[in-house]
């Protein structure tokens, strides 16, 4: 999947080491399922139906995308990925970059076994990714935090590439086999590729993208899929479906004064459900501590406490305390402590 710098409005990445123990960061592995199909492929319906059934059965243990490598929904990104996998026949599916599987008959059992086998392979990567797609700006932002689990390092990180796609569901295009007129998991575009820069337990890499959206894409049906892949054998180290940022505007990174410590208002505020994003900048490497305090000034959650590199940083709060229990509705404060001093703002939590 080649990099297309002209399509990128902004990219920023930074690396930091976490002070002290990293904690139990390991999370269940998410399997990347890549299918090659087209609108005109009759047998591709079996693959799509099987994946839809397994999404209901298995939940978030996998994330699936479909490359339309030919036909009216074909894109250069999908063609590049087809070449990457040796131009497979349609329909063909890869699980975490492994052996390609056809879709003769009902492939549900075959797919289920492949997903469960791939999910059993341990990974040292923990992703935290949030995507925001804005209609007014016709732009999408993707914010990724890659953490190395304390249990094991990542050998030869330079061999892995961070990749991310914009995928759209319910794409209208009439008519395929059986007069189907709506298509899910359609790959629309790719974010620029970036190398993995961290390898040791406790290290963190931050990556941020802002990309334009194509004309006619339905913003509410867009998703972002992120993964790390080694090209030597196409193996996927980790994958994730970026969380929905809630229809907010793309983060205004280009407008921030990065010559000093800055902290923007949390978005959304008030927070009703999901989580809010707190954006701050550091003019140089610094120790940053972000706290959530209740109305009486008591600390109810520490969101980050450790060294951070120069640049823009995202912190998220989901309305829970130290134990993960939901906090009561009310007024809270988020406070950023750095060597430059303290910044604080008010946040309202609704239930």
Number of DSSP helices?
3
Which fold name is given in CATH as the topology of the largest domain? Immunoglobulin-like
End-to-end gap: 43 Å
Q: Can you tell me the CATH superfamily of the largest domain?
A: Immunoglobulins
Order of helices and strands: EEHEHEEHEEEEEEEEEEEEEEEEEE
CATH class of the largest domain: Mainly Beta
Strand content: 35-45%
How many separate domains?
A: 2
Estimate the global geometry from the Cα principal axes.
globular
Q: Judging by the overall fold, what is the CATH architecture of the largest domain? A: Sandwich
Largest sheet: 5 strands, mixed
Total beta strand runs: 23
Strand order of the largest sheet: 1-13-7-6-16
What proportion of the residues is helical, as a percent range? 10-25%
Radius of gyration: 21 Å
Give the helix/strand class. Answer: mainly beta
Task: List the uncertain runs.
Answer: 1-26, 247-254
Mean pLDDT over the full residue set: 83
Write the layout of secondary structure elements.
Blueprint: E1 10-17, E2 31-37, H1 44-58, E3 62-68, H2 76-84, E4 92-95, E5 100-102, H3 108-119, E6 125-134, E7 139-148, E8 160-168, E9 171-172, E10 182-183, E11 186-190, E12 194-195, E13 203-212, E14 222-230, E15 235-241, E16 243-244, E17 262-263, E18 276-282, E19 286-293, E20 299-308, E21 311-317, E22 330-338, E23 341-349
Parallel strand pairs: 2-3, 6-16
Antiparallel strand pairs: 1-13, 2-4, 4-5, 6-7, 7-13, 8-11, 8-12, 8-14, 9-10, 14-15, 17-18, 18-21, 19-20, 19-22, 22-23
């Amino acid at each position: 999947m080649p990099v297309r710098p002209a399509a990128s409005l902004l990219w920023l990445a930074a690396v930091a080491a976490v002070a002290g123990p990293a904690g139990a960061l390991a999370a269940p592995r998410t399997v990347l399922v890549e299918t090659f199909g087209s609108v005109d492929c009759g047998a591709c319906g079996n693959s799509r139906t099987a994946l839809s059934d397994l999404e209901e059965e298995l939940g978030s243990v996998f994330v699936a995308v479909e490359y339309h490598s030919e036909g009216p929904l074909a894109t250069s990104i999908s063609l590049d990925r087809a070449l990457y996998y040796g131009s497979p026949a349609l329909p063909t599916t890869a699980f975490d970059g492994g052996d390609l599987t056809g879709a003769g008959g009902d492939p549900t059992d075959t797919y289920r076994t492949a997903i469960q086998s791939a999910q059993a392979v341990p990974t040292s990567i923990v992703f935290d990714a949030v995507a925001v797609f804005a209609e007014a700006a016709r732009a999408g932002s993707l914010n990724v935090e890659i953490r190395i689990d304390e249990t094991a390092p990542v050998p030869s990180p330079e061999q892995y590439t961070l990749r991310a796609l914009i995928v759209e569901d319910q794409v209208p295009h009439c008519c395929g086999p059986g007069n189907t007129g709506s298509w899910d998991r359609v790959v629309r575009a790719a974010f620029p590729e970036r190398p993995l820069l961290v390898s040791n337990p406790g290290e963190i890499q931050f990556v941020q993208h802002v990309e334009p959206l194509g004309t006619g894409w339905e913003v509410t049906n867009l998703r972002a899929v992120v993964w790390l892949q080694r090209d030597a054998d196409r193996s996927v180290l980790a994958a994730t479906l970026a969380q929905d940022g809630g229809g907010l505007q793309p983060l205004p990174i280009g407008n921030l004064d990065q010559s000093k410590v800055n902290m923007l208002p949390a978005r959304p505020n008030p927070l009703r459900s999901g989580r809010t994003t707190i954006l701050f900048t550091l003019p140089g490497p610094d120790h940053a501590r972000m706290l959530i305090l209740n109305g009486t000034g008591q600390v109810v959650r520490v969101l980050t406490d450790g060294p951070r590199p120069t640049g823009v940083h995202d912190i998220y709060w989901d309305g829970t305390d130290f134990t993960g229990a939901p906090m009561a509705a009310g007024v809270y404060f988020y406070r950023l402590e750095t060597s430059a001093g303290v910044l604080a703002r008010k946040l309202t939590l609704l239930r």
